[in-house]
C-alpha cells in the first residue's frame, strides 16, 4: 500500500511530466513513460488531479496543466518569481544577437525554461519553450549550470542520471565531462546540435548571492549562425549579461 509520501512523489512526477509537454499536451502513455510509472497508476492520478483542477484535458484528450496550478503559482510569485528582473537581460540578448534568447532556472537535477524572447533573424530553433525541462548536462543552459557545480556534485549527478539512454551517446558521462571542461575553460557552454541536428545553443550560468549556479541565460539558433568566427562574440555577450543578471538578482 502506498504511503502518503509515495503518493506525493508520484503526483509530483506526473505534474512535471505534464509540464514538460506543454503547450501541446501529453497523453497518458507519455506521462507514464516520463514519470516512470505504470499507465493505470498514472491514469488514476491524472483523473484525481483533474477533479482538483491541477490538470486539465483538451478537446483531443491530451493532459494539460490546470487552472488551480496557475492560482497557486500566482500566490507564490512574490517569493520565487525572478522573471521580472531577468526579462530585460533576455530581451537585450535577443535584440543584440538576432537569435532566440532564454532564461532558465535550476530545479533539483533539471533546468526549467522560464522566459523566451525571439530575435530578428527569421529562421528560429523551436527546441526550447517556456516550461520545458531538461536534466543538468543537457542543452546549453543545463550544461552551463552543471559545469559550475562542484566536482563531487557533478559525479553524483552523472551517477544518478543516465543521460545517454534518453539523449544519445553524446551524453555519455565521458562526453559530458569533456563539455564540462570546455565550459569551464571558456566560461560559457556550447551545444553543437546535440538535441536537434542543425540547432545550436550557447549558455552562461547565473549565480545567486552564495555564488551557486541557480539560473542560466542561453541563445539558440541555426548552425550557420553559430560559426567559430561568431561564437566568441556571442559568448562575450552572454557572459556580460549573466554577470549583470547575477548582480541584479543578489
UniProtKB/TrEMBL annotation:
SUPFAM superfamilies cross-referenced by the UniProt entry: GAF domain-like, Winged helix' DNA-binding domain
Residues of the HTH iclR-type domain: 5-67
Keywords per UniProt: DNA-binding, Transcription, Transcription regulation
Matching PROSITE patterns: HTH_ICLR, ICLR_ED
Record-linked Pfam families: HTH_IclR, IclR_C
Domain IclR-ED: 68-250
PANTHER family listed in its UniProt record: HELIX-TURN-HELIX TRANSCRIPTIONAL REGULATOR, ICLR FAMILY (PTHR30136), TRANSCRIPTIONAL REGULATORY PROTEIN (PTHR30136:SF39)
Protein name per Swiss-Prot or TrEMBL: IclR family transcriptional regulator
